[in-house]
Each structure stands twice: as C-alpha cells, then as structure tokens.
Amino acid sequence: MAKPNYQYEKRQRELAKKQKKEEKAREKAERKSGPGGGEAASGGDAPDAPAASPAPARPEGG
What gap in Å lies between CA 4 and CA 8, rounded to an integer? Predict the structure, then answer.
C-alpha cells in the first residue's frame, strides 16, 4: 500500500487557504472602492451606474 504524502496534502491546504485569503482581500477592496457598498459584493453583471435614483427634491413650503 502507498504511503501518504503528508507534505503534498499540507501544501494543498496552504494553497487553498492562501487563495481564499486573496479572494477575501479582493472582495473587500471591491466593496471599499464600489459605490454601492453591499451591492458590489454580489459580483453580478450590474453596470457601473448607480441603481438608485437621485435624492428627491425638498419641498419649498417646509
């Protein structure tokens, strides 16, 4: 029976952990630079234009 290669398994775990960490950092940077806050984290095909309409006009009588 073959002997398990623990060094290979450990390296694979380290690579997976590193990849996950880099992905989290990239998503955090996207959220930070994105105008939508939480919407930027969805990663959809949304255009760069803001989805919300501009603020409503203030009433002049108030």
Answer: 9
